[in-house]
Amino acid sequence: MKHNVILVVLDGLSYQVAQHALGHLLAYCQAGRAALYKLDCALPALSRPLYECILTGVAPIDSGIVHNDVVRLSNQRSVFHYARDAGLTTAAAAYHWVSELYNRAPFQAARDRHTSDESLPIQHGHFYYADHYPDSHLFADADSLRQLHAPNLLLVHPMNIDDAGHKHGLDSSQYRNAARMADVLLAEYIQTWLDAGYQILVFFAFQIAPLAWVASNSLNTAEGWGLGNFQQAFSSAFYRQAMRHSLEVAFWSSLFGIVIAIIGSYSLRQVSSRLRDFVMAFSNMTSNFSGVPLAFAFIILLGFNGALTILLKQMGVIEDFNLYSKTGLIVLYTYFQIPLGVLLLYPAFDALREDWRESAELLGANTWQFWRHIGLPVLTPALLGTFVILLANALGAYATVYALTTGNFNILPIRIAAMVSGDIFLDPNMASALAMVLVGLMTLITIVHQWLLRRSYHVTR
Q1: Residue closest to 331 by CA, chosen among 252, 399, 275
Q2: In whole angstroms, how far apart are CA 198 and each of 57, 146, 190?
Q3: pLDDT for position 1
Q4: Which pLDDT value is given to residue 440?
Q5: Residue 153 to residue 434: CA distance in whole angstroms
Q6: Which end of the chain is more exposed for a tag (fewer CB within 10 A), N or C?
Q7: pLDDT score of 253
Q8: Which residues does 181 contact at the CB level (< 8 Å), separation at least 6?
Q9: Using a CB cutoff of 8 Å and minimum separation of 24, what contacts does 134-140 make?
């Protein structure tokens, strides 16, 4: 018996949150009218590679769609291709990367935003290109396609859950509420779709399964299960150098970044609201300025023949500067750490009340004594938390350093990427081991952070 299918992909939804937030779908499971299956996520756990994996069944390392910046048509046969070969009608209300994978690439909004072309794999589509495009609009787009074209296969791909996770984090009310809203929208449409004769498949991404998959594969060696990958990682001078470089670049860029962010955040409290709003808006914009554009900007400014490099040489300030060295990378990383640090630290200064300073001055305290005994102890939790976030931000940075050095600087993200996407040194199990080293480093840093917090002024006094 042939069934029409609606595939709903709830982008970025964790399994744990789904168990609490998708009450309507779980009610179908409890009633025996639906089934819940927990699947392992393919790696790398990035959006475009996983769209390709879900829709073709081909792992990213085999499809070549290994990161989000691979903008081309898929060279694999998707479920849309198979449906078209069977003479079926296809449709999608989805993010524009789906259009780039299976219809036309690159995406041109004027041409591809609304698609109705019988010759394409996805014949009828509404494709959006803003991550905050409302899920309510997306589901309405999907149901409009269903009513107008009666597709045999319909993809529904909302983005608000993933968007909330990127902006507010997994453990946030905004993320959970976005998941609950998706469940409400599904409750509005799902019975209508079932009554129209559709089978409905709901996919959602989650965090624990990819981590478990990485941990499992890190123990898989050519000789069987064991710690061979970790032994090789820590016995190899090359891999130890990658770990050392990652830690050094992350530590110094985070330290310089947080010092400048402290000064900048405090200074913003002393200026007019108009200038403060402008600087905060600018910080918000520059905190997302990374990857190839940032690397290109620094090459123009601080490359061997960069404008600022030449100017400083002519002024006698420097004799030479190598942007592609460890020092150059620390400067580059510090740049993108500063706006993030400002955004994180600025609200923390609300905890410092002006009457505390006035009281301290009345009691004879000078500025240093105020900051030593009052200001810094109050800010300690925010400073430690921000420093840990900056470390994580630097340890995991990949696109900028790869664009700048084309993968020739030895840090852990570069080594991991080379072993999951390279043609010669392909070794996903060793990549998993190095990824677990990164996880271990961040776990250790977080433990130290929590220990220092328990010893901080606001807890012990």
Answers
A1: 252
A2: 22, 10, 9
A3: 41
A4: 85
A5: 40
A6: N
A7: 92
A8: 135, 136, 160
A9: 134/160, 135/159, 135/160, 135/161, 135/178, 135/181, 135/182, 135/185, 136/181, 136/185, 138/93, 139/93, 139/185, 139/186, 139/188, 139/189
Separation of first and last alpha carbons in the chain? 71
Q: How many CA atoms lie within 13 A of 35 on its CB side?
A: 4
pLDDT of 457 reads 45
Please say whether the beta carbons of 341 and 280 come within 8 A: no
Residue 99 has a pLDDT of: 96
Q: Which residue stretches of the chain have pLDDT < 50?
A: 1, 206, 457-461
Question: How far, in Å, CA of 290 to CA of 56, rounded?
Answer: 31
Tally of CB atoms within 10 A around 429: 17
Could you give the CA distance from residue 42 to residue 213 in angstroms, rounded to a whole number? Answer: 8
- The per-residue pLDDT for 133 is 94
Give the pLDDT confidence score for residue 370 in this predicted structure. 84
| The model scores a pTM over 0.90 | no
